[in-house]
Amino acid sequence: MEFDDDELIHFEAHGAAPLPPAAVDGHVAHDGARIWYASYGVGPAVILLHGGLGHSGNWGYQIPALLRRGRRVVLIDSRGHGRSTRDSRPYSYELMAADVLAVMDQLHLDKAAIVGWSDGACIALILAMTAPSRVEGVFFFACNMDPSGTLEFVPTPVIDRCFGRHAKDYAALSTTPDDFNPFVEAVSLMMQTEPNYQAADLGLIHVPVAIVLAEHDEFIKPDHAEYLARSIPNAEMIYLNGVSHFAPLQRPSQFSAAVESFLDGIGS
């Protein structure tokens, strides 16, 4: 799709492209929550994990490209996000990683490649550590794996537009539509205190991994991304030029091309 929205003006007003009709969708009950999922197409499975405060609809531009390449695409709303519920426990990446495995079991998926964006990337890499037999490879876009990896937060108009869209979508999709502010506080607490993985942990990952960073990422230090690529055996470092933390929305075709190249390279 030849479409640019570098300032997220279209996204703020309309969201990403609408999701196509799913072959299968529903909820799976897991560990105090009901986790929403949807599956599209047939072929080698690719799970798309969205970022914090967002939901699976943020992948609307990527699904058609992956379907054209003969992939089965699986979306999952992280617990408490989008159409998924949560219980009273604090958010944790490990808990959300376990939710992904529950969805895979529900769909009888033995193994899948995982494309993670921001918080979704952290979840994907935790799965690569803890359940490597279920993971074909990880496309890790725009995330840290310990607190040292984040930049000092500086508000920008692009971030504000994205946040405004998240607020509208939360109100439209959530079972607790009036609780956006407590939701933001709870997710932010997780982001401030997690993840906490060290180089020794990363060195135990033995599935194909691409560490992907946008040229103008507002949240992740470039040297942290390069450290991740050095610490994970045989990891690839990919830079996306001209975009920021919101690359899948800003320049969908550029982002999709990078994903497809990675998937082709791992034979998934």
From TrEMBL:
Entry-linked InterPro entries: AB_hydrolase, AB_hydrolase_1, AB_hydrolase_fold
SUPFAM superfamilies tied to this protein: alpha/beta-Hydrolases
Keyword presence, Zinc-finger: no
Pfam families assigned to the protein according to its UniProt record, in alphabetical order: Abhydrolase_1
Keyword Hydrolase set for record: yes
Domain AB hydrolase-1: 44-143
Keywords, in A-Z order: Hydrolase
Molecular function as annotated in GO: hydrolase activity
Protein name as it appears in the record: Alpha/beta hydrolase
Organism of derivation: Rhizobium indicum
